[in-house]
Design goal:
Layout: H1 7-19, H2 25-34, H3 36-45, H4 50-56, H5 65-74, E1 77-80, H6 89-100, E2 122-125, H7 130-134, E3 137-142, H8 148-163, E4 167-170, H9 176-186, E5 191-194, H10 208-217, E6 219-222, H11 232-244, E7 248-253, H12 259-269, E8 273-276, H13 287-294, E9 301-302, H14 306-313, H15 336-344, H16 353-360, H17 364-376, E10 380-382, E11 387-389
Parallel strand pairs: 3-4, 3-7, 4-5, 5-6, 7-8, 8-9
Antiparallel strand pairs: 1-2, 2-6, 10-11
């Protein structure tokens, strides 16, 4: 990294990342006010404000920050802190704004698993720069118990976005998360997995090979130091980070009670774009997506393609999706008179132009003018005694003899 924090700052933030569970707004405010080094010293000595000290508890007596940094180095990881150039300050600024709006009184504050609070530090594993990868990124999230439909569309969206130079961010879990990561990798694009455990651990264990591939093109990111276990509450806490690191969140497939819905709600609360992909109305795995789309207050956008996603998160006026393609027809180019003459033509027996003019309500000269055009498109044919509609089973370009 071009500009790095001092060793004392890095040690202090490494200690804080283990001593304090992420999402604690009182601790974040204390660190903002006195700085990470002084906050570390005060908490270690038991001299921090009581409300802050209580959030650290027995962990104040432990200090394995140097060991955490060494363990990270051994697995190819590093600690990225706000004092580093690599820190995605602009991207995470939405969390800073949200944190300032959280009430000061503890009883009025949201639960820590839902609080929109900036991270104190991020453990990052991989060779790419964190700020570089998340600058143009989209989150794809969804159910772990996904269907084949959900996995297919997640992979297609991720592949399409990856081909257009966008980074895919997800949680590395079973189902939609894994499909999104694989879709991005299939396009040769970077992808970021935001974990609820240490970056030295593969969770789920069966995704060891997937995480190895992710590291070839992208990053593993976590707020927890190496060795930390994937506790249940940590998945809820990390959802805000997935939402904050990206320009928008796409909920691909989600049941009525799904962590993916929580990520979408965090994104909306942070002012990010929230999108949802519809599924079969008979699928329980799409109930959550449909509920999001029905919630008019949250202004969730329905998307079906990568181009439609980019229309929401891309550059204004530059990343517009093309209108949906529809099959062309020879009828599209016909004039009003030609359409009326075609409608006047009988199906079985041919009639002369004079009869067609009477039925179509136009002059005979107009009929004679449009009949060659209709014949060119194989819409009408001459029977020897008059004109009729070309039979539908007639091979194109064939004329009766």
């Amino acid at each position: 990294m071009s500009a790095a924090a001092g060793w004392d700052v890095r040690l202090a933030r490494a200690w804080l990342s283990r001593a304090v569970e992420p999402g604690s707004v009182d601790v974040w405010r204390f660190v903002q006010r006195v700085g990470p080094v002084d906050a570390h010293r005060a908490l270690r000595r038991g001299e921090a404000p009581p409300a802050v000290q209580a959030l650290v508890g027995k962990r104040a007596a432990e200090d394995v920050s140097a060991d955490d940094l060494l363990r990270a180095e051994r697995c190819g990881a590093r600690l990225v802190v706000p004092e580093d150039d690599e820190w995605p300050a602009l991207t995470l600024h939405c969390l800073t704004l949200a944190a300032h709006d959280i009430p000061v009184e503890r009883r009025d504050q949201p639960d820590r698993t839902q609080a929109l609070v900036p991270p104190l530090a991020l453990w990052v594993r991989g060779d790419r720069g964190l700020d570089e990868l998340v600058d143009r990124s989209v989150a794809l999230v969804g159910s772990r118990a996904s269907t084949a439909y959900g996995e297919h569309v997640a992979a297609e969206l991720a592949h399409g976005l990856g081909e257009r130079g966008w980074t895919i961010v997800s949680g590395g879990a079973f189902g939609i998360d894994a499909a999104a990561h694989r879709g991005a990798l299939a396009a040769g694009a970077p992808t970021v997995a935001v974990l609820a455990c240490g970056v030295d651990r593969a969770y789920p264990h069966s995704h060891s090979a997937l995480f190895h591939r992710v590291l070839e093109e992208g990053l593993l990111v976590s707020e927890w130091p190496p060795g930390c276990a994937p506790l249940r509450h940590r998945f809820l806490v990390r959802n805000r980070l997935i939402a904050a690191l990206t320009r928008g969140t796409v909920v691909v497939e989600a049941a009525a009670r799904s962590g993916a819905l929580a990520t979408g709600k965090r994104a909306r609360d942070l002012g990010r774009q929230v999108m949802a992909l519809p599924g079969p109305v008979t699928s329980a795995m799409s109930v959550g997506c449909h509920e999001l789309l029905r919630d008019t207050e949250r202004q969730v956008t329905l998307v079906t393609t990568a181009a439609e996603v980019l229309q929401q998160v891309g550059r204004l006026g530059a990343d517009l999706a093309d209108p949906a393609a529809r099959p062309g027809s020879a009828l599209d180019s016909l004039s009003d008179v030609a359409r009326r003459v075609l409608d006047a033509c009988p199906v079985r027996t041919g009639v002369p132009p004079e009869r067609l003019a009477t039925i179509a309500g136009c002059e005979v000269v107009d009929v004679l003018r449009v009949l060659p055009v209709l014949e060119l498109h194989d819409l009408v044919e001459w029977t020897g005694t008059g004109w009729r509609v070309t039979p539908p089973d007639r091979p194109r370009g064939r004329r009766p003899r």
